[in-house]
Amino acid sequence: MPASNPSRLFLSGNEAVARAVWESGCKVAAAYPGTPSTEMLEVISTYPEIYSEWSVNEKVALEVAIGAAFAGSRAFCAMKHVGMNVASDALMTLTLTGVIGGLVIAIADDVGLSSSQNEQDSRFWGRFAHLPVFEPADSQEAYEMTKLAFDFSEQHQVPVILRMTTRINHVKGLVSVGTRAEHPNLGGFKKDPARWVMTPAGAGRRIPLMFERDVALAAAAEVSPLNSVESGRDRRVGFVASGPTYMHVKESFPDAPVLKLGFSCPVPVEKIRTFAATVDKLIVVEEVEPLVEKELKAAGIACHGKDLLPKQGELAPNVLRPAIAKLLGEPAPEHLAPPAPVFPRPPTMCVACPHLGVYYTLSQIKNITISGDIGCYTLGAGHPWNALDTTISMGASMGIALGLDKGRGEADKDKRILAVIGDSTFLHMGMQGLLDIVYNRGNVTVLLLDNRAVGMTGGQPDPGSGRDIHGEPAPRVDFAKLVEALGVKKERIHVVDPYQLPVLFKAIREEIKIPEVSVIITDQPCVLIDDYKKQKPYEVLDAKCTGCGNCIEVGCPAIHVVRREKAIKPSGKEVELQFVRIETSVCTGCGLCVQPCAPDAIVPADPSKPIRLVKH
Ligand code: SF4
Ligand code: SF4
Q: Nearest ligand to the C-alpha of residue 580?
């Protein structure tokens, strides 16, 4: 529950933003979950004063926030960097209308690609949409800048982008917080079609106002206390940095002068020009793109940046120090802290995940091309399934599958095309793609893996789960009816249990032979949500196990190889046998691995036996 009295709290950047949203008197908040942004809305949903929702996608989330801001209330929406690609259609017109109630849009950039399909730099949206960008460097700043952003948004009637990165989103720090101040609604929605209805003529009249606003924003950035100079004794180099790069610069070069950009778009060019004159060499430290660097060079300010520093990944001290030492003609520092030892754990599916059966089955079917999607499904590209052939973006599996079908060459003429998509991803962006397949008579078999949650980001509810953001009952979409409404023939729609491998195998084998669109829906819940029911665990009878390795192909992390042996087959071929053990403490008894075990070596574990933990 939120603290009611001013105090210091230990908060991640996401939690700090959520706290500030609440204190700012925000009325409406919306998001689609996505690492590293998810926790902002999760925390906001605990504040009863704010209407909060998981929207079906980021565009809808932004539209909900826009509507609230048009109605005069403070509003907030959050998304990960790729989410803004989805929301940008609304953003690029929102910049013309502006807002009444303060609107803050938090975008979380996954610098370093911890769980994303690209590393795009969201600061571009500020330039593209002529919007101010604030960049916090720690949790305290995330809190303070969010509050300032609401005020700034109302003062200039412009939405403010709060650009965060994974390091700021997830790292915790002490934050001095206050209390919620109710913020009055700013007069309700006032009819003004010339402002709110963006016909070509109306939009054309608003564009000059946007350029006028640019001038005001640039002037505000020049004098903003968020852009501050910190003097230093060693003036051989001076840094321009924002967000987490400021922290990296301070740690690497504590004696160097730094111009810290908190309000980084529009760039306060004259402030930086004055600063540049006080140091021998100016270095712009920016993660991902040389955005500020290019703007400074265009303004005739000499500086270094990406000529020294990598364009990919975080610019931590172990990257910064050697690069700057080279510029200064000094030897590279020797005593860099070694990376913290972490257990090497490649991403994989959970024990008993219902998708295991799907990917195991797909891995057994030959002559198919599989178009994959974003979410847990992406893991199907890994070992042991190696099942996916493409993955581009949220919901793209549908359209890409149609393209693979329509664009097939002679080499692919007999290949079957499958598309795999999850429930949340389907509702987010996949539905239109399926409609397109139906409308254009594509020959695609769609596997719609309904696990009743946004599994990859931690099991948040979606319209397929029957629950809302607070865990309250909500209408649950019926996927079979939905896909039928999109035009898929009733006889081409199958709902199957993904733990029943023969049933799943038969459904896929039959449908890929039929030259029209089919949808196979799997209907077992994600193992991380409450709906999942555990069964009694299984164990392996060592005396019966032949080491065939079939159960390993299922890919359940509860199955461990404990012994390998070489053997000669009757054909004379040498094979490696893999004898296994099941970690009974985590096995949920889903029964998937039992099915491919020919000698029935996998049996219910004897509950009277103590749990055996596998030693790595
Ligand atoms: S029954 Fe097999 S596949 Fe299912 S959780 Fe246990 S070990 Fe994993
Ligand atoms: S499938 Fe059965 S026989 Fe083969 S390795 Fe697994 S437990 Fe042993």
A: 2
Distinct helix (H) and strand (E) counts, the chain? 19, 22
Mean pLDDT across 317-332 = 87
d(CA 218, CA 264): 10
Adjacency order of strands within the sheet including 445-449: 368-371, 416-422, 445-449, 518-522, 493-496
Quickly tell me which residue has 């009743």 as its tokens: 452
Distance set, CA 382 to CA 375, 387, 527, 570 (Å): 13, 7, 20, 32
Q: How close is the Cα of 601 to the center of ligand 2, in Å?
A: 6
Integer Cα distance of 426 and 133 in angstroms: 31
* Tokens found for residue 602: 């996998």
Instruction: Identify the nearest ligand to the CA of 600 by its number.
Output: 2
**Predicted model pTM:** 0.87
d(CA 546, ligand 2 centre) in Å: 6
pLDDT at 611 over 90: no
Residue with tokens 């979409």: 477
Q: What are phi and psi of 225, to 5 degrees?
A: -65, -10
Q: How many CA atoms lie within 13 A of 368 on its CB side?
A: 27
The SS3 call for residue 141 is helix
What stretches of 199-336 show up as alpha helix (H) in DSSP?
A: 200-223, 244-252, 269-276, 291-298, 317-327
pLDDT at position 5: 56
pLDDT of residue 334: 66
Q: Which two tokens mark 460?
A: 């948040």
Is the Cα dihedral 56, 59, 61, 63 positive or negative? negative
Letter string b/e over residues 520-538, b meaning 16 or more CB atoms within 10 A of that residue's CB: bbbbbbbbebeebeeeebb
Query: Could you tell me the two tokens for 14?
Result: 């996401």
Please determine, for residue 262, whether its predicted confidence score (pLDDT) is greater than 80.
Answer: yes
Q: Which atom of ligand 2 is nearest to the CA of 540?
A: 7
Please determine, for residue 608, whether its predicted confidence score (pLDDT) is greater than 70: no
Cα angle: 137, vertex 142, 147; to 5 degrees: 140
Q: How far apart are CA 419 and CA 370, in angstroms?
A: 6
Strand, coil or helix: 495: strand
Enumerate residues lining ligand 1, CB below 6 A: 351-352, 538, 554, 556, 558-559, 582, 587-593
pLDDT at 613: 44
Q: Is the CB of 592 under 6 A from ligand 2?
A: no
Contact, 166 vs 36, CB < 8 A?
yes
Q: Tell me the mean pLDDT in the region 158-170.
A: 93
Beta strands in 489-601 (DSSP E): 493-496, 518-522, 538-540, 559-568, 574-582
| Among 25-29, 567-571, 574-578, 606-610, the range of highest mean pLDDT | 25-29
Please check the confidence at residue 309 and state whether its pLDDT lies above 70. yes
Q: What is the pLDDT of residue 616?
A: 34
**Most distant CA pair in the chain, distance:** 85
Best mutation site among 545, 559, 592 for ligand 2 pocket (most ligand atoms within 8 Å of CB):
545
Strand partners, 577: 565
